[in-house]
Amino acid sequence: MKTTLTPAETEEKYQALLEGMSDGFAILETVQDSSGAIVDLIFREYNSAFKTETGLTPDGGSIREVLPYLDGMGVSDFGSTLETGETSSFRARLANTGERRVFRRFRLGGPGSTHIGLILERRTNRGPGSGLFEEGDALLHAMTEQSDLGVAFFDRNQKFTYANSAYHRMYGYKPGDMVGKRVEDLTVPEDWRRKRILLDRTLARGEPFSIDKRHTRPDGKLVWVRSSVGSQRDEHGNITGGAITSIDVTDLKIAELTRKDIEDRYKLLFNSIDHGFCVIEMVFGPQDEPLDYRFLEVNTSFEAQTGLKNAVGRTAREMLPELEDYWFEIYGRIAKTGIPERFEMPSEEMGAYYEVYAFRIGLAEAQQVGILFSNVIERVEAQNILRETEARFRQFGEASSDFMWIRNANTLEVEYLNPAFEIVHDISPPDLLADPGLGPWLEMIVPEDRQAIEESFESVREGKSVECVYCLVRRTDGQLRWVKSRHFPLIDSQGSVQRIGGIGRDITEERQTSNRLEVLVTELQHRTRNLLAVINAVAGRTIRRSKSLDEFREKFTARLDALERVNALLSRLGEGDRISFDLLLETELGSLGLDEFNPDASPNVVFKGPRGVRLRSGSVQTFALALHELMTNAVKYGALSRPEGELSVTWSVETEDNYSRLQVKWEERGAPREETCPEGTGYGRELIERALPYQLGAETSYDLQPDGLRCTIVMPISIS
Length: 720
What we know:
Layout: H1 7-20, E1 24-32, E2 38-46, H2 48-54, H3 63-66, H4 78-84, E3 88-93, E4 100-108, E5 115-120, H5 138-146, E6 150-155, E7 160-163, H6 165-171, H7 189-205, E8 209-216, E9 222-233, E10 239-248, H8 250-272, E11 276-284, E12 290-298, H9 302-306, H10 316-319, H11 325-337, E13 341-347, E14 352-361, E15 368-375, H12 377-399, E16 403-408, E17 414-417, H13 419-425, H14 429-434, H15 439-444, H16 447-461, E18 466-473, E19 480-491, E20 497-506, H17 508-545, H18 549-571, H19 581-591, E21 605-608, H20 617-636, E22 646-656, E23 659-669, H21 673-676, H22 683-696, E24 699-705, E25 708-716
Parallel strand pairs: 21-22
Antiparallel strand pairs: 1-2, 1-5, 3-4, 4-5, 6-7, 6-10, 8-9, 9-10, 11-12, 11-15, 13-14, 14-15, 16-17, 16-20, 18-19, 19-20, 22-23, 23-25, 24-25
């Protein structure tokens, strides 16, 4: 079981191992000039054996203090050790004794290290089979075991002679299992050919190399390993094998592949999108004001969106001298603040209207901005046309006396109401829009009409137009109002019904007028039938009582004139109006030219009774003929035919149990009829005594007294 040591424990273990070695060991740090060449090596650490063997205490001293004679080599030769990582041996004389001793040097750490390990072997010769890490190499072994860097050695047959724990973990083997395996065994076939060539050069000429290669571990996992390989030489300079330092770069390779994949996808997207895209570099003035920007990168759609060719490397002012200042201000702000902005803006210079998303790229110091944009001038123009159309529609809707509404075809929620809707329905658009569903509107409609309305919406959803007539109850005054409307589909560009429109009007007055017309037509038909019946009767009686055609013509014409007068009065009546008795009486007097007998001007004539007594329209024609006969006979034969004659017409109204009757008394004096009434006259009497009771339900009396006529008529009249 591996136990993790504290830093103090590790240091203690390291110092104990260092002091327990019989070989001298020291760590040197290279000193380099401005060109990177090694000009000296300084002792940083050494063990007791090194001090004993050299007889020196080289704390912080130069290597020249210990080894003034490097047998023709200079300190610069240590650079190959740092560069290749190879372990090599050399001979040099000690400063205190002049004795030539064998030293081995090796790089401490990976590439880029500036430290070298130096081993001074004991004077006692090492026998065969002593092992690579016996005594003097124990420190190197200990250091490699503590490192996360994979370290291994191999012989000229390319078989591993040693690998540290990190190297075993990296390749997925248990400690010790790699010794005896070939280097080829740790490389996938696709990478081995290249590595074999490099490895052969190392073993033949000592050429170091670095390589990234793949290996499939025993557990099946593929790992990437970055290895630095150098040769190993004996004390005679002969190549005996090689050394490998390795790190696991699997995560790095995956990241590189991922980054490359992202870059590839970015480039594909970059050049595939219809939107224009560019990267610009802002140009600021001495007062840090945005002056211009330079195009660093553009995609293939850039030219189509802007009309600009060969833009990379050129500035906006160069290509568009009259470009609006706000473009520079916006992009300059984004470059400074790093806050992305999405906006739409027109450009008169470019003849376009752009939808833009701009964002800073990298640090503020780079002053670069990425711009994703699209020329949406067609959409903007279409929106402007749509807004103008909507404005005209709203003006039309607000001016229209017909009400209009629009509802969503799916939810049936109302989306638009014009002012006329409130006038007809007695509910304001804001109130209805607060609860836009169909329910509040249906509640206003009388129950018996609701189903038809709901069915109309289903028909419109199917693309049909439907005309509806329904009755609603106004909320504030409770009035019943009749409404006629047409419901129709509003179809989108795909032919689907998206909305339902409605336009309608209040037809209550039209309906009432229509009803009145129906009543009037019915009344006209009734009166016409009555009139024809009256004319037929008058004609029959007149012809029977006429002695000649001329007499018939005279009497029949007079009686037709009487009917014409009363029908003229009827035609001028308003709805619900009636002809009054006094008006009928005055009209008959005027038709006979008897204005001089006006009761206001003649003391012999008395008309007395309440004004405005309304007669039933169905009885007026017959009653008017009766008055005409009484008036005509009075003028020809009665009280109005002589100066001393007197006429009194009085009337009153009797009401009992909501039943009203008009009582008319016609009295003549000073005109005996026997003397003046010719033979054959009697139509008026027959009309009064027979026609009025039969047709009008009247009670009549007709009495010729010696001094004049006494006639009484009692007939039903209208209550209101």
